[in-house]
Hints:
261 residues; alpha/beta; seven-stranded mixed beta sheet; three-stranded mixed beta sheet; 10 strands
Amino acid sequence: MIDITLPDEEFLLHWWNxxxxxxxxxxxxxRAKAISPEGQDPFPPQKADLARLHYLIHHHRFLTSLEFGxxxxxxxxxxxxxxxxxxxxxxxxxxxxxxxxxxxxxxTVDTExxxxxxxxxxxxxxxxxxxxxxxxxSSIGLWRxxxxxxxxxxxxxxxDFIYLDGPDxxxxxxxxxxxxxxxxxxTPMAADLLRLEALLLxxxxxxxxxxxxxxxxxxxxxxxxxxxxxDRDGDVTLFVLHEEPLGKHNISGKAIxxxxx
Length: 261
């Protein structure tokens, strides 16, 4: 079964430099400056957070990713998938046939069309073919009589890596029994993954950025065999679905690359 560890900050900064992310995001920031209102500087990239995503996708060879949220992270996914695609294409006639219609593709979901558009504008041109942007509102709801929230509409894909970093709680519409997600102290409580759990394939990984209360909610309510690793220093939680493969076609991307090598 897949074994994933979360590297420390020293390793992540080494990965950042080794994989050309400094130059990539310097160019992205320049593109962001060009479209920013006068006198307003773009947010600086968070190197360790972006390197962590890039490492997980590129090192562990995840094939299809889904992101709740949008931003610089979307570009880290795009670069990692492009590197994987380039290496995979080098196998040429030795490439393994895969039952995957979204190979080396990334889809991001966000409530705000303007941020989706902004990220599309600063995305390097070479990456646009592998990225899909999906807008959806988010609404308050229930999971087993517990208040939570869901995106109203999800992309019809089957990811093996999911990044949970959205929505902003203030974007969640509606109320239940007088409760809303507009309270500043209230934590996000996304439950989309609980609805999707039965559809996920063995080996799927989920990274929750911050949102520790939400991660613990998921852990209490998941029904399959997930491992959970909370990295307090990095403020992330990693889930991995540890089950026997469904068959010969349910093989991890990393195993595929090792087989081809």
